[in-house]
Design brief:
Pathway: Cofactor biosynthesis; NAD(+) biosynthesis; quinolinate from L-kynurenine: step 3/3. Its main location: cytoplasm. It catalyses: 3-hydroxyanthranilate + O2 = (2Z,4Z)-2-amino-3-carboxymuconate 6-semialdehyde. Catalyzes the oxidative ring opening of 3-hydroxyanthranilate to 2-amino-3-carboxymuconate semialdehyde, which spontaneously cyclizes to quinolinate. It is a single chain. The protein is an alpha+beta fold. The chain is 16% helix and 37% strand. A six-stranded antiparallel sheet has the order 1-2-9-4-7-12. Strands 3-10-11 form a three-stranded antiparallel sheet, covered by helices on one side. The protein has a three-stranded antiparallel sheet with strand order 6-5-8, with no helix packed on it. Strand 10 and strand 11 form a beta hairpin. The longest helix is centred in the middle third of the chain and has 13 residues. The radius of gyration is 19 Å and the shape is globular.
Length: 239
């Protein structure tokens, strides 16, 4: 893959990949999984992983349904906004027609597994779940979703206790999430500080993920249109 990619052109060239029910196309896979997701994709499944996820809406708005402190919650991410989802929080991206969003995840360790869950109605009682090692979410979710639609649980709306784990592979996160914010507004508000320090962390020390705004100078002109994502290396992932 080329080092520099025209995102708008890439999205147009791959628009046929943004098909329901997942609408997901992977752009890059090495340490970071960089993907774009289109719409519409009305989903009832909730994804769970051990790493954090960075969302940025390129075109249009989206709604990220999550389970926060044992309750369902909607997080609306508008065009141009950024949102960092903490690890181990069940989430279900709801995307609309003619929208495109960027999602960045870290590469999974070989010992890590992801979960996909369906809940009973508007409750947080688990109806159906599958746990798997994730390599390409866009391709791996489809057969699990199809399995759910063919299941007795889907037809009856009742879980099968024998198919549910008595304990999840890792404890779910009970933290409260941040509010989405405008990326361009953040750059404008911190332009002076970025110029002085050469770079500035967007999320501080509250996350494993580090997203930085950088200052690039050329002939005394300051360019702040480039943003770089740096992920703290997890044990077992080479630099």
């Amino acid at each position: 893959m080329e080092l520099l990619v025209n995102v708008r052109k890439w999205i147009e060239e791959n628009k046929t990949a943004f098909l329901p029910p997942v609408c997901n196309k992977l752009m890059h896979r090495y340490q970071l999984n960089v993907m774009f997701v289109g719409g519409p994709n009305e989903r009832r499944d909730y994804h769970i992983e051990e790493g954090e996820e960075l969302f940025y809406q390129v075109q249009g708005d989206m709604c990220l349904k999550i389970i926060e402190n044992g309750k369902q919650k909607d997080v609306v991410i508008r065009e141009g906004e950024m949102f960092l989802l903490p690890a181990r929080i069940p989430h279900s991206p709801q995307r609309y027609e003619n929208t495109v969003g960027l999602v960045v995840e870290r590469e999974r360790l070989k010992t890590e597994i992801d979960g996909l869950r369906y809940y009973v109605g508007e409750s947080t009682n688990v109806l159906f779940e599958k746990w798997f090692h994730c390599e390409d979410l866009g391709t791996q979710l489809i057969p699990i979703i199809q399995e759910f639609f063919n299941s007795r649980q889907y037809k009856t709306g009742k879980p099968n206790p024998d198919e549910l784990l008595k304990e999840t592979p890792f404890p779910l996160n009970s933290t409260s999430v941040m509010e989405p914010f405008s990326f361009s507004s953040w750059l404008n508000d911190h332009r002076g500080e970025i110029k002085q320090k050469k770079s500035l962390s967007m999320f501080g020390d509250n996350f494993e993920t580090e997203v930085r705004g950088y200052n690039f100078s050329k002939k005394k002109e300051i360019f702040l249109k480039v943003w770089i994502i740096e992920w703290e290396e997890a044990e077992g992932i080479d630099k």
